[in-house]
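User: Can you model how phenylalanine sits in this protein?
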Amino acid sequence: MTKNFANRISIIEAEALELLDKAHSETELEEWRIAVLGRRGQITTVLRGISDLDPDSRRTAGAAANQLKIRLQAAFEDSKGRINSDETVASTGTSDRIDVTLPGRKVSSGSLHPTTQIIREISNAFNTMGFQVLDGPEVELDAYNFQKLNIPAHHPARDMWNSLWIDRASESGEYPLLLRTHTSPMQIRVMEKNDPPIRVIVPGKAYRYEATDATHEWQFCQIEGLAIDRDITFADLKGTLEEFARIIFGAKRKARFRCDFFPFVEPGAEMSIDCFKCDGQGCRVCGNSGWIEIMGAGMVHPKVLEGVGYDPQLYSGFAFGMGAERIAMLRHGIDDIRHFYTNDIRFLEQFK
Ligand code: PHE
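Assistant: Here's the modeled complex, given as structure tokens:
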């Protein structure tokens, strides 16, 4: 390095530090930064000058210039810290020391969605009765959503489920994909893969091509149940579902079973509990009947058992399906199913 160059570096450093000492505000500091460290600042000029030196001197000169840059940058950071705390004291009259006597800030935490909560609660209730919890595909084949559940193509029973087809030609069986209209196809999938005894609970989303209102959503959650073994009778169905109602709604609620039709069960039933609002006296919530329907159920149809290769002479079982939001609505007195899907934080925070 030439003596000349070394001199220049120490002069630049001395001048820059002197100027830095005089900077007393953020603006002045920024002006200094641009003049000294900026893209067209003094340091850059020095670095450019290096190429004019003879090759031997270049390396040491470059190192010296870089050292200078690092020292000036450090000095700049120091001054920034000093000015910041000066300005805080000036504007607030306090230093930035921590006031340990201040109460802590509340940390707000999230919580599980009410639908998730009720699904977990119901799954746990059946878990204690020996049911396993599974899930399955939401995009389903016509075969599983309908045909293997004893609902052939073009059968009028299909009208019970307004379907969202992935392709409209599906109903002819050509492109047999749809968004499952219920969780019942999982009955078939479970039976095809396993031998009895079977006891499963399948929570999951279901989709219907329907207009939404206070009690209908086009997308909702169902919870399917299936039990297959030798000698399972309707009494087992009733006992299991009454125990479920006791766990979820409390011992005070009464349960009622009435005949209902679903192509994949025989006999079929609907289960209701007595109205939580009027204790069965009749009110607006229960449409003056005193009862609220909570699910469809029944003994698995022999044709369904045969279809998956089970011998209906040997095995029998029951199945049931309920709407998760519906149960949550009854539990919490929620009057509109659409609340579950609008993500209004005021609604959700009630279920923390
Ligand atoms: N899958 C039926 C529905 O969505 C309910 C059901 C399930 C009925 C199982 C009987 C047995 O309406």
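A couple of observations from the model: The chain has twelve helices and ten strands. The beta strands are 132-133, 139-141, 164-165, 177-179, 198-207, 219-229, 255-260, 265-274, 291-300, 316-323.
User: Helpful, thanks.
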